[in-house]
Amino acid sequence: MRILFRTLLLLVLILPVVSSDSLQSAEKQHAEKPNVIFIMADDLGYGDLGCYGQQVIQTPNIDKLAKEGMLFEQYYSGSTVCAPSRCVLMTGLHTGHCHIRGNVGIKKVSDEVTEKEVLDFIRTDTRLNLPPEEKTVAEVLKEAGYQTGLFGKWGLGQENSTGLPTRQGFDEFFGYLDQKHAHNYYPTFLIHNEERVPLKNIVPNEDITGAGKSSNKVEYSHDLIVDRMLQFVDEHHSEPFFLYWADTIPHANNEARDEGMEVPDFGPYADKDWSAAEKGFAAMVTRLDTHVGELMKKLRELRIDDNTIVFFTSDNGPHKEGGRDADFFDSNGPLRGIKRALYDGGIRVPMLVRWPRKIKAGSRSDYIGYFADFLPTAAELTAVTTPEDLDGISIVPELTGHSESQPQHEYLYWEFYEQGSRQAVRFGDYKAIVEPMYSDNMEIYNVTKDIAEQHNLAIHQPELVKRAKSYIKEAHTPSPVWTVPKPRRNKNR
Questions:
Q1: How far apart are CA 328 and CA 261, in angstroms?
Q2: For a tag on the chain, would you pick the N or C end, based on fewer CB atoms within 10 A?
Q3: Contact between residue 184 and residue 212 where contact means Cβ atoms under 8 Å apart
Q4: Homologous superfamily of 34-405 in CATH?
Q5: What are the backbone angles phi and psi of residue 196, rounded to the nearest 5°?
Q6: Measured between alpha carbons, how far is 41 from 43 in angstroms, rounded to an integer?
Q7: Beta-bridge mates of residue 152
Q8: DSSP state, residue 258
């Protein structure tokens, strides 16, 4: 009996110690694996934020990310439009290699074709859906033990297809699958995981994707998405998580035409002597900024702020849609071109990264990188093996103050299949643009000295032309679903 009592007493004394050690071990393991948050605005220009020179639109919370973290001056999106840019981000492959290399619109079909036949085409079209063999950032971080959530716009897979976020590594998804559906800020439904969630909005002329213009405007999708995103953080703050917040702001509702800058109210810009479209655009950007502030407040309240790295960027350059003019707020700043161009105004985007005590507050970087870098960066941050044969490079050395050991890209590459097609390659200080693809119509700019791309060097520096052509040839991998236009000679050369 005495022996049994001593044994029980020993267990009572030992168990709290074991429990405490286990808790400390779990906390240490979480501390070694930072939460990763990637915020991506939609069609936000290089010049739309105060920290990048915006003088009118108020973005104090996003600007604070720059004050407390690192601002990149030469960072590029994956493409100049939505879907391919997101594919580059998710797969670490540029548009010469990745699976989805362009936006594909669902065209109007004849009365003889049923809705079911169109839906079957959407679900099986290889241009619209990531295949199972593609490895995404979410799948990589799942291997590292992360909870993964996507809130906002996906654009890489349709309903019941292989490209669904929940079949590409995400534990939870809430938002839009189709980028055309995402035009509508007052849709009749959103997608939660793999199911439609009906909303109270009424869209009289809704098309097969769910796009259109609401007649009653009751539930604003951005606000619903933000609420569910914050709930995800609440639910998973005690374990490592990857949050991809792919917001739709400030994209226009193209189906609403001149009334396309849809927002519940004009906020601080209501009394401005501007058009409704410009008020709407400014209000959308500031609304996004407010919700960025709410997310950062949530991280502080949950005491996970120090152990969370936050990225903020945009999927491509600014637009002239929804009745607005990108020049009104100087949305592309000092850059030439807008969305759908391969001049820097179409692809050079804001990039802010904040990580307390790991990234120097108020630092600026001239590293030349792009979305393909995110996957290898996330892999290194979370101590998981980086997939082979990526086009991206981890930027952890640059972020943590070791720029002297940061690997550099030999070149960055883009190809674009709309508007007759075009290609671009950035190598060192130079950038070449070919339009149409594989033609002799090449322009070359020193984008370090000539940020507005005004002085074409192609005629006077043939060695740069030769170098650019070699990179372009190397970068492009033929695809059965993306046809390269036949080369055309430049009549002026």
A1: 14
A2: N
A3: yes
A4: Alkaline Phosphatase, subunit A (3.40.720.10)
A5: -75, 135
A6: 7
A7: 175, 246
A8: G
Which of 3.30.1120.10, 3.40.50.300, 2.40.10.220, 2.60.40.1120 would CATH assign to domain 420-475? Answer: 3.30.1120.10
44, burial (CB in 10 Å: exposed 0-12, middle 13-18, buried 19+): buried
* Cα separation, 215 vs 459, whole angstroms: 55
Is 484 buried (19+), middle (13-18) or exposed (0-12) by CB count in 10 A? middle
Domain parsing of the chain, residue ranges: 34-405, 420-475
If one counts every other C-beta atom within 10 angstroms of the C-beta of residue 68, the result is 17
List of E strands, 268-409: 308-314, 351-354, 363-365, 369-370
Burial pattern 122-148, b for ≥16 Cβ within 10 A else e, equals bbeebebbbeeebbbbbbbbbebebbb
Cα 283 to Cα 217, 265, 266, 278, distances in angstroms: 17, 7, 5, 8
Placement of tokens 């699976």 in the chain? 99
| Pairing assessment for the beta strands 363-365 and 70-72 based on DSSP bridges | parallel
Sign of CA dihedral 319, 180, 96, 489: negative
Please name the residues in contact with 313: beta carbons below 8 A apart, sequence gap of 6 or more: 38, 39, 40, 41, 75, 77, 349, 350, 351, 352, 371
Please give the chain's pLDDT, 493 residues, in tens.
444 444 433 333 333 343 444 334 434 445 579 999 999 999 999 999 999 999 999 999 999 999 999 999 999 999 999 999 999 999 999 999 999 999 987 665 556 678 788 888 888 888 889 999 999 999 999 999 999 999 999 999 999 999 999 999 999 999 999 999 999 999 999 999 999 999 999 999 999 899 999 999 999 999 999 999 999 999 999 999 999 999 999 999 999 999 999 999 999 999 999 999 999 999 999 999 999 999 999 999 999 999 999 999 999 999 999 999 999 999 999 999 999 999 999 999 999 999 999 999 999 999 999 999 999 999 999 999 999 999 999 999 999 999 999 999 999 999 999 999 999 999 999 999 999 998 999 999 999 999 999 999 999 999 999 999 999 999 999 998 898 766 655 543 3
